[in-house]
Amino acid sequence: MSKALKGFLIGFMLIFVLAACGGNEEPEEQTGEVEEPKAETEEVVEEEATEEAGVVNLYTSRHYDTDRELYDLFTEQTGIVVNVVEGKGDELMERLDREGEATEADVFITADAGNLARLKEKELTQAVESETLTTNIPEKLRDIDNEWFGLTKRARVIVYAKDRVDPSELSTYEALTEEEWADRVLIRSSENIYNQSLLASFIELNGEEAAKEWAAGIVDNMAREPQGGDTDQITAVVAEEGDVAISNTYYVGRLINSENPEEAAVGEAVGVFFPNQDTNGTHINISGAAVTKHAKNAANAIKFIEYLSSADAQFKFAEGNNEYPVNPEVEPTELLKSWGDFKEQDIDLTILGENNARALQIFNEVGWK
Ligand code: FE
User: Fold this and answer.
1) 232 C-alpha vs ligand 1 centroid, how far in Å?
2) pTM: predicted TM-score of the whole model, two decimal places
3) Which structural domain range is residue 172 located in?
4) Ligand 1 centroid to 160 CA: how many Å?
């Protein structure tokens, strides 16, 4: 078979397999947080290089059509073929660990600095020297040793029922532990990395004792036992099970932009409030990428992450999941801009990994399920 024909056939197969998993996708990131039965990881392709430029093999817990379009654009520009394995973050991490030196994965993409820190701790990542990355990505949004890099940013905010809560009643995460919020606060389980990272940030900013007081105070004020993901908390606010929820911003964006009118109505019924603007700022987190420790195509892996951090790619990459770009040269979408600018917590995200174990202990101590 001629080289060109072979390339064509492989391209065709790739499109076919991608199309097969592009339909009714679960809208949450696959970080192990989803309530549904576990889907098997989707093997897309592990093809040989069709060009001299070679390949880059990606494990990712993101699964958005826009991400895939970007991979195609990267291939167009560089000739490097992107082979994608999609799955839940924790399952892919276990797999990478299990595969050891034999792994095919060159790049790992997942949500939350806490997860990326875990990868590094397990010695599954390698340090990358790239001026492009250190220029495109602010220091606080990447690992201290450049073993992982933030690619999109999200804030963990207070979402409130517009018909029942006036934003002037809201101020800080801490204020939600006060008596007036008794039985009104909706938030997911502490098993979830987003809450672990939130509490890890409070440990850093306010100290362990204050962080524990906060967690205990939220448990006291919960409208119900934690259940479901962030979207379920927002839906419960609109269903009047509680009046406020703590959620990542992109879940609100997803609801507002949903083609399902019921979901869109839920999104329109809530407001986004950035807490702690007069104190230490709103908690932010990232989804990001790392070059794996045993990458066989490390140079291509770096080129790939550099591409995703570029001004060209950043808007699309963030837009696909209603997130904020990390590259300061790129503006967020109109919807995100409409929520306004906000002051962020001023901590290095590396800290979230370092404080994770203590955060888990505190959650246990205060009985946050
Ligand atoms: Fe998520």
Assistant:
1) 12
2) 0.85
3) 3-24+154-283+354-366
4) 19
